[in-house]
Structure formats: C-alpha cells, structure tokens
Amino acid sequence: MYTYIWICFFLVITCISGNNHELNIDGTTANGWEFVRELFQKNFVDERDLGASLAVYHQGNLVVDLRGGWFDKLKSKSYDNNTLQLVFSTTKGLVAAAVALCVQRGLLDYSELVTNYWPEYGQNGKENTTVADILSHRAGLPFDFSPFDDYLNWTLMISKLEQSQPVWKPGTAHGYHALTYGWLAGELVRRVDPKNRTLGEFIRDEIAKPLQIEFYVGLPSEQEYRVSPLDFKPNQTSYDDFNKNNTHRAEIPAANGITNARSLARLYAGLIGNVENNHYQRILTEDILKRAIKSNTPSHEIDFVLNVTTTFAMGFFLLDNVFPSLGAGVFGHQGLGGSIGFAVPAKNLSFAYVVNRLDTETIDIDHRYKSMINDIAQMINRNHATNLINMTGLCGNLRQNYKHDGTSLYMLVQPFLNFNTLLIGLSSQILGTGFQIDLTLTSRAWLHIRILLCLQSIDAFISSSPSAAVRQKITVRTARYFTFGVICFWFLHEIPYYFLQDLVMIENTSMCIMTNAIYAKYRSYFTYLDIYTLIPVIVISIFGSLTYYHTTRFGTGRTLSAFTRQMVKMGLFQTIAVILFNVPYTGEQIYFLTTTNLVKDAYRRAQEQLVTSFFAVYGYGPYMASLIFV
Ligand SMILES: *[C@@H]1O[C@H](CO)[C@@H](O)[C@H](O)[C@H]1NC(C)=O
Ligand SMILES: *[C@@H]1O[C@H](CO)[C@@H](O)[C@H](O)[C@H]1NC(C)=O
Ligand SMILES: *[C@@H]1O[C@H](CO)[C@@H](O)[C@H](O)[C@H]1NC(C)=O
Ligand SMILES: *[C@@H]1O[C@H](CO)[C@@H](O)[C@H](O)[C@H]1NC(C)=O
Ligand SMILES: *[C@@H]1O[C@H](CO)[C@@H](O)[C@H](O)[C@H]1NC(C)=O
Ligand SMILES: *[C@@H]1O[C@H](CO)[C@@H](O)[C@H](O)[C@H]1NC(C)=O
Ligand SMILES: *[C@@H]1O[C@H](CO)[C@@H](O)[C@H](O)[C@H]1NC(C)=O
Ligand SMILES: *[C@@H]1O[C@H](CO)[C@@H](O)[C@H](O)[C@H]1NC(C)=O
Ligand SMILES: *[C@@H]1O[C@H](CO)[C@@H](O)[C@H](O)[C@H]1NC(C)=O
C-alpha cells in the first residue's frame, strides 16, 4: 500500500512542480540517436547551458542537429538555427585544417624550416624552427603580454613575433601557444597562398565554401547581429573583449572563430570522409590527414604552459586520453569555457558542441558532453556479444535504450518476471488441475508483479506528457528505484505465505490450507482482490486512457522520440491485455468472496470448480500477452 501512496505523492508533486518552464530545444535526431537530445536537454534543465548547439555526423550523415536555450542572458530570443557562436580555441582545429590543405597542395611542408616561407622569422634564435614546431606548440613563443588592442592588428602582431626570443630552443619542448599559435600558423598560410589572401579569406574560400559551412575568422559586419554574446560566470575571469564587434571582425585565428555546431561537425566530417552521400567531397586526402593527426609530442612530455601532459599533432589536439571510450585516433580541439569539435576516423564520427555560457575554470572534460560522449561511444562500439542479445529483437532494442527511458526499463524487467511467473505458476496450475500433481507447497509463484505494469503505465503517461518539464520528472534512476522497490516489496510480502500454511488431510485428500485465519482473510480480501486485480486494473485503466489521450490529443510525435513512442504504444497494448484478462478474473474473485458464507450443493461446487480452474489459467493472460513481445 505504501508503494501506492508514494506513487500518488510522487505524481502530485510532479504535476504541481512541472509546467512552469518549457524548454525550447529545436532540431532533429536520426533514428537511434534520440538519447542525445535527452542528454542535451538535461544540460538546460540543470542550467549548465544557457544557449547551445550540438551536432554529430556518423558515416558521413548528420545524425544529430540540435540547438536550444537562449541567445543571451536576458533571454531576449531563442538560440536558434541562425545563431552564431564564438568558440575560442576550437578555432585552432580549423587553422590546422587550412595548413594541412596548403601541405596537400604542395605549398607548405611540415618538416621544412619556417624561414623558407617567411624569412623575417629567422631572428633571435628562431632560425631553425620548423613548420611542425609551430603547429605542435614547440616553437617556444607561448606567451604574449600585449594590450588586447594589439591583437586586432595582424601586421603588428606578426612583426612582434618576428622579433621575439623563444622561451626554449624551438623543437625541444612543447607548451600551449594559446594565442600566438594562430598568428604563426596563419602567417604561414598567408605567405604561401598564391592569391595573397589573409587566413580568414583563405578559410572562407577554400574550406567554408566547398563544405557549405559557416566558420568565420574575421566576421563580416553584416553577420554581427547573429552572434550570441558569451556569458561568463560571476566569479570567473570574464573575457569581455571577445564580445566586442571589432574583436569579431579581426582575425585572431587561435581564438576568435565564429561558427555553429552543425558547421563545426561538418568540418570534421569533411576532414575524415565524404559528407552527405558524397554531396560534399572530403577536403583532405587520407594520406595528408594521417600526417596532420600524427602526434608530434614525445609521450609523457609535460606541457610547459599547462603543466600537464598534452599531445599535439599538426595543430590538432589529440584526445585519445580524454575520451578513452572512443578508441584511438580522436583529434580535434576544445575551446575555453566548453565548446569542442572533434572527429574519430576509425568510427566515422564527428562531434561538435558550442555554448554561450562559459565555464572557464573547468580543466577536466566539460560536464556538458562528458557522459554524452560515453553513451555515443557505447552505442557505436556495439560488438558481437551484443549482437546475440540484439537477435532477440525487443530485448536488444531495450538493452540499448533502457538507460534513457524509464518505461523501457520496466519493459525490460517485466518479461523476466512474467516468464518466471508463467513457468512456476502456470506449470503448477497445469500439473495440479490437469494431472492432480500438487506442487502447491513448493512452487507457489510469488512474483505476481502486475504492479510493475502499473508503474510502466504511469511512466508511459508521463513520458507522453505534452510538457517537457513533466517528461523530465521520470528518469531511469527513479525507474530503477521503483523496480527494485517492487521486487523487494513482493519478496517480503510473500514470505508469511510460506510459513502460515500447511498440508492437511481432508476426506482422504491432502489440501493446502492457511493455518492463520487473519492471514487467510488478508489474502482473500487484500492480496487476491486488491493487489492482484483491482488496483492494477484501476491504475492501468486510468493511466492507459490518459496516455492514449496524450498521444492522440497533443500529437506528441513532434516532441517524443520514436523509441518513447514505441514504448507508449506497447504500454497501451498491455493495458488492453490487462483489462481483457484481469477484469473477468476480478469478477470471479468478487463472486467467491461474496458467496463464501452460502451453503452450496455438490453440483454448484463442481461448476465453481470448473470456473476456478478456467480463471486460474485465464488470469495468466497478461503475462502471456507481454511475452509476445520478447
Ligand atoms: C564512412 O562512412 C561513409 C559513408 O557511409 C563511407 O563511404 C566510408 O567508407 C566510411 N569510412 C570508413 C573509414 O568507414
Ligand atoms: C537550419 O539551417 C539549415 C541550413 O541553413 C537548414 O538546412 C535547416 O533546414 C534549418 N532548420 C530549421 C529548423 O530551420
Ligand atoms: C640551426 O642549425 C644550424 C645547423 O644545424 C646550426 O649551425 C645553428 O647553430 C642552428 N641555429 C640555432 C639558433 O640553433
Ligand atoms: C597596425 O600596426 C602597424 C604597425 O605597428 C601600423 O603601422 C598600423 O597603422 C596598424 N594598423 C591599425 C589599423 O591600427
Ligand atoms: C601577391 O603578392 C606578391 C608579392 O607581394 C605579388 O608579387 C603578387 O602579384 C601578388 N599576387 C596576387 C594574386 O595579388
Ligand atoms: C562566488 O562569489 C561569491 C561572493 O563573491 C561567493 O559567496 C561564492 O561562494 C563564490 N562561488 C564560488 C563557486 O566560488
Ligand atoms: C560595434 O559596437 C559598437 C559599440 O558597442 C557600436 O557603437 C557599433 O555600432 C557596432 N558596430 C557594428 C558594425 O555593429
Ligand atoms: C606542476 O605540477 C606538479 C605536480 O602536478 C606540481 O608539483 C608543480 O608545482 C607544478 N608546477 C607549476 C609551475 O605549477
Ligand atoms: C541492434 O539493434 C539496433 C536497434 O535497436 C540496431 O540499430 C542495430 O543495427 C542492431 N545491431 C546489429 C549488429 O544488428
């Protein structure tokens, strides 16, 4: 009973506390990728994100394309399809791609001296710096203490860098060149480009245009209105200069790239393969890509600036140690405060996340995408062992999804319990009634878990709710608690049954009867009538019809994932099964309870016996019905 009180309490709280904020998540997810939307949405519910966009390419196709939240702190408008975002160092990956493209065209060579292309650089001990040194943060010029306005003047920064003295002998150590990387690598591109373009122009023409992406280094003024302002946490350093429009217009290639997740993910998809059914050709060949993402950092070398081990390839950050679940060969770049773009060639995957609420002090992987990436990896890494489970159809489907959907967890647990009940209960019925082999004492089924079915129908009701806030309330965690709770409840509940009954001889036949009159009454009035039948029928009918109302009335197809829709449909089917099979059984129970004190003749008793046997088997209907799914 407490279970029900608790559920009612929970539901009331859910209904009261829901509905006060709607989340404006927009975009699409491919079949099987719906869980990413739920995790993305959670970042807004938990207020880690204010406005953000997220995109994933798999096997060359855009499988996740989401954005949500607000353009700015005042929530003046939605963070939508048109919104652009400054992504700080995530831009460094784009610069690395531009340099790789120059290498591919024979304009640059990673192992050549910088002075071959840029003679003025050969001053003050930098004479022997190679292109690779610049790209992998080994050039020895990690620091720059110029006033911010100097960063907006390319020629000024270049002449300063030409005259700088390296902090270490170039090539002998590495340390993150947070800002200088951009000018150094960018100047190389500018110097070798036959058309004398700036780095920003080169990127626009040679990368953004062919891939049809938006990724600006040097934003055209007319796009300024689309840039979502960065929101810095009150206690953290605020880099307000990066919200100014003249900063956006300048080219600071290490830090002021402006893009969105869809573009960033397509850039990385376009580095590892053809995109969208060969609609966009890859921009780097397999061979050049291999060279561009090969580590140029001796293993375990400590980063001079960050004082941790970091691994750099030709401008790309190697992320194998950051995302071990994705396997080897993960390359890309993070940006200050939470943005990231990367690709995993072996998995044919690219991922991008861009944000306007910055957490500038998290050194570890950003929490916004940490678990998301593990779940994506899990989905992609499915191996042969899981194929076996997959072959059983629904179970395989559920196994992959139960982590994200409470209803499916019940669905996953239920077949096992049903099977148990059927195996033990039904076989003893058949043996007992059909063959007079009485196994009642040893094999009474205790797992009559129709309650789980109740929970599942409540869950389906909640997950089909038109309000996203209400849908958020049912989580897999609560589902796990309830499942565990129900199993424990039944186990404890059925223990007295085994102690309070005995085998006695009546008219030369052995019969199993209750030795405790109070417990016998409790079982007939409460266990059989209420817990087995009435309560499940009532709860399931109410929530089943409410769920049906939700799905037909609100056209929830728009907001529910395909998987959740399927769960809801299956829940509705079970509702029908329970009503079909349990309502007559309930009627039978009521009949026997109301006629216990009547004196019945032998003929009537024989009739009743027949009816009892029939319903004892008929009552297993719902279990059979749900087994159909397995
Ligand atoms: C990546 O996916 C594309 C599109 O399905 C395919 O053509 C390509 O061969 C895949 N690459 C790898 C390395 O699997
Ligand atoms: C978002 O923009 C892309 C590219 O411009 C377009 O293909 C897509 O249809 C847009 N989506 C929405 C929901 O506006
Ligand atoms: C550069 O390399 C040359 C030849 O190896 C060497 O003679 C010269 O001293 C080096 N210059 C610097 C600044 O290390
Ligand atoms: C940039 O710096 C150079 C060199 O100091 C200077 O000549 C030029 O006027 C500056 N340009 C701008 C736009 O301030
Ligand atoms: C690029 O600059 C070089 C030297 O400044 C010049 O000789 C060449 O004509 C320029 N090319 C273009 C396409 O403007
Ligand atoms: C932020 O600053 C306020 C007051 O300046 C302080 O009370 C609070 O603990 C700080 N929060 C963190 C996370 O440092
Ligand atoms: C740039 O910002 C300044 C001050 O915020 C504003 O006065 C100016 O009109 C803006 N320019 C453009 C092109 O948006
Ligand atoms: C670098 O890290 C080590 C251990 O992590 C620490 O002992 C050392 O003081 C740090 N050095 C600097 C310069 O922060
Ligand atoms: C396993 O099932 C999922 C759907 O749940 C499907 O997407 C996937 O391709 C299946 N895997 C195999 C190896 O059949």
From TrEMBL:
Pfam families, A to Z: Beta-lactamase
Keyword Membrane: yes
InterPro entries in the record: Beta-lactam-related (IPR001466), Beta-lactam/transpept-like (IPR012338), Beta-lactamase/esterase (IPR052907)
Top-level taxon of origin: Eukaryota
Annotated keywords: Membrane, Signal, Transmembrane, Transmembrane helix
Beta-lactamase-related domain sequence ranges: 44-364
Record-annotated membrane-spanning stretches: 481-500, 531-549, 570-591, 611-629
Name of the molecule in the record: Beta-lactamase-related domain-containing protein
Organism: Adineta ricciae (Rotifer)
Lineage: Eukaryota, Metazoa, Spiralia, Gnathifera, Rotifera
